[in-house]
Every structure is written in C-alpha cells, then in structure tokens.
Amino acid sequence: MVRTANRTTIAAAAAALGVALAGCSAPGGSDGDTASSSTNQITLADAEPVGQYYPVAGYGATGVSPVFEGLLRPSAPNDKELPDLAPALAESKPKVSDGGKTWTVRLKKGVTFHDGSAFDSKDVAATYRAVLDPKSASPIADDYRLIDEVVTPDPSTVVFRLKAPNGGFASRLLLGIAPSEKVTSGDAANSELNTKPVGTGPFKLQRLAPNEATFVANDKYRSGKPEVDKVVIRHVEDDNARMQQVVSGQVDGSALPPRLAKSVDGRDGLKVTGVRSADWRGVSLPVSVPITSQPETRRALNIGVDREALVEKVLAGRGTPEVSPITKVFPQHADVDFTKAKGAARKAEAEKLLDEAGWKKGADGVRTKDGKRAELTLAYPASDTLRRELASAFADQLRGLGVNVKLWGGSWDDIEPKMRTTAVMLGGGDNPYTVDTQAHRALHSRGSASGPFDNPGNYKNAKVDAALEAAQSTSDETEATKQYRAAQDEYVKDPAYVVLATLHHTYASRDKGFSGPAPIVEPHSHGTTWGPWWSLGAWKKN
C-alpha cells in the first residue's frame, strides 16, 4: 500500500530547509515565470513537493529517476505489458542460486557519481542496509525485509542472501543507489540527500528553492550528455492551478486528473497522453465498523457498486474496472468477480445480501441492525481532486443501497490515526513490477512490520494469508501464480476493500521538439518523473 503519509514528513523537512536553500541558490526562476523559450529546457509542474530525493526515503524505488539509478531498470517498448527489468548499474542480469535464496549481481565498472566519486559495491550495500536499518524509518523497508544480508566479496560484486526463496526479488533491485559516504544513520526523512541528492543518473540537481528544483544535464554521464540541457520542476499542488499554468504556457506540461486533462486536449498545441498503470483506487473497509464487519456485507457493497459508471463519469473513460488489489496488469490476475449478475441485477443481489445479513431499510432509506445504523465515514486527502470525486460518486452509489456514507476530506496526518475505524479512498500499485509486495501489503493480516497503510481495515483471512505466504516463498513462477489465484478465489468470498479501478495516468504537454521512448506501465507514483518524461536522458532533438 502506498505510504503517502511519509511524504508529508519529508516535505516538512524540505520546507524547514527552504529559506536556507533559497538563500544559497543562484538567481532565476519563480512560480510566476513562463516556461523558458529555450528549446533545450523543459519546465514542468508537479503536485509533489520538491526536495525529497533520497532513495532510502522512497524516491526512485521503482527504477525511474533523472538523478538516481538502480541495479536494474524497467524497460519496455510501450505500456501494453509489464516491463522487463534490464541492467542499469548492473553489468548483466542477476544470477540466482541456492534455490532462489541467493542473488548475485555484477556491477558496471567506470561509473561515477555526480560528485566525481567512483561507484562500487560498497555504495549498493550501504543504500540497502540503510533501508533495512530501523533508525532510518524508511517507508519502503517492508518490501526489503526478505533480505537476510548484503555481502560485497569485491568492489564489482554484490550478493543478496534472502531469508526464503523469492521469484520476484528482481523488483527490489530497482532501488536508486547513493554514495556510501553520504548514507548516514538516522531518520531518512532528515537526510541531507533529500535536498542535495548525489546519484549516477543523467541529470544532477543544480538549484533548489522552496517550490522549484532545477536539474541540469550530467555532462559526464556514461551514455553521453543528455540533449535536454535543463529540467525545471515547480511544485504546484492544486490541480486547477497546474492546468492553468500548462494552458498559459508557464510550464510545458503536468500530470492532471482525467477530466481536467480532457478539457485542455488540443488547446494551443497541447496534447494529452494517457498511460496504463497499476495504480488502483479503492475503499478500505474497516472490520470494526458494524456495516463492514461481516464478509456478507462487504461482498454486498462490492456487488452493488457500478465500477463501469465510475470509470466513465469520474475518470472520463481513462481507467479499467477492477475487483481486487491483484489487478489486470499482473499476469497472476484471476478472472474472478463477486457475482455473475450484470446491471440492475447486481444491485438487486446486493440488497438481498444486506437484507439476509439483517440490515433492513428504515423509513429514511438507511438500513439498521440491532439498533445500529448502516453508516460509514469515508476519508480522502482533501488536496486530491480525483479521490474526492471518486469518494463522492462512491458515496452516492452506496446511499442507493441504504448505506449512509459521510465524506471527510483531511490531511494524511489526520487520517492515519483513524484508519482502523474509518474507510479510506486509497491508492495502491506502488511497485507494479512484482505482484508479491502489492498483494502482501494489501491483503495479508497486519503484523509488527506492517506500515500504517498496509491492510488499514485490519482484515484477517487465514486462507488468504496462507496462499500469499506460499506464493511469496517459492521461486517457481507457475506455483506462485497458482497461489496468488487461490488468494483471489478466497478474496471474492471475503473481501477487504471495494477496489474500483486502475487509473490511466493522464498528462498534458506541449511539443518541445524532442522525441523519446514511449511511456511504460506506471506505478502509483506519477507526475513529472513519469508519463512522457520518464526517460528524459534518452530524449533526442528532432
């Protein structure tokens, strides 16, 4: 599950440094400037704050970043299928031995960091050990706890020894690598690398102000200096404000919610690109709340929701209806549903299930059972336009079933402590290059290592747990797929969420005279690091 809440912590740390950063930066650029007329500069607006660039804190964990590189990186011709994981800082693909428990990676030689220091195995080990160090409070640590140890037999070799076989471990080799001497102990959110990143990537940070970051081409990049000279990223949180900056020419592009993107498509030379993703939206169902405490009622809500209507009306058709966190993006997806009924028959079946579970409609149309009303509070981040619209449409549909939904827009810091008793409009799919972390975080019973957004409704199903554990501990892909599908078979009998759809991320951009690789299947994370700009270092001037 996506740990969006941690971004608040990092952003706060960056903001605290903002005055000092602005004071020591070179002059230039402000939020009111128009996009540069330079044909070799790209100016973009992003909803996420600038100044949170440390891989241990989660930045670049999926192998896509202008600044950092991992041992592997996603590689695909388009977004029609999951990417292959190709060597980046690795010399070749990992060698797997010991029944899937040992992964040996040979490293490229002659690679240097932006500060001129040489890259070798100690940098890889230091970065991974920092993620696993409890003192780092890394928000991505759960994904790496299967690592028993990281060994560096020589400067060009790294050996990962796992606690159990894992066929999806290659996805953990996407993590951006930082110089060992700059990887310090302590909270990753407070690391200097958030605001002074040093990587091996095609761009390096030149200037950081409170609401703007400027990256310049790395003229010593091993594949040659990028043809894009400069990339300016401006933090503009509000969706409508970003749209206005794109339309007015203040920036060359931005990620926009689907309906806003549709409204600007074709205006003044703007083009909207839709990119398939593993990024799902769905509602967590807290088992402590009466109306969502029973498998039967949770199934009823899943049956009664019209996902196709939500995709069409809220996502402007830019999405794919889904019923579980193991979405259609993954080859392990099972073609399951909560019922074979279609259209109006689904709603009728949902109402029948609620009736049979003892929830009867009252005079006001709201169901009650044992004196308790069928009520649910649904939280969403107030600044997220799309989640707000999905939450409102979802609430309207549930009211039609006799369930009263109270909407609450707040900050993640406000929402997080109440997730065991409050439904939340969540996002998932933060690492689409393996299914195991996604399924485990969303569906496995919570444990001591679980993050705040992992299975927030405190769902427990022993059969689902057993299938997920069996799938995660085998290197046999056929067996793993069998177990993931078994977990989905059990899930539709006893769901934890109402998963609604995967998003097709939408980006509005203006032609700057470059061509580059087509977008690939994206994770939950999107914005100026993704979409048309996911591989700016490879862009070529037309």
From TrEMBL:
Keywords: Signal, Transport
Keyword Signal listed: yes
Entries under SUPFAM superfamilies matching the protein: Periplasmic binding protein-like II
Domain Solute-binding protein family: 85-448
Signal peptide: 1-22
InterPro entries: Peptide/Ni-bd (IPR030678), SBP_5 (IPR039424), SBP_5_dom (IPR000914)
CDD domains per the UniProt record, alphabetical: PBP2_NikA_DppA_OppA_like_19
Keyword Cell cycle: no
Stored Pfam families: SBP_bac_5
Domain of life: Bacteria
Family note: Belongs to the bacterial solute-binding protein 5 family.
Descriptive protein name: ABC transporter substrate-binding protein
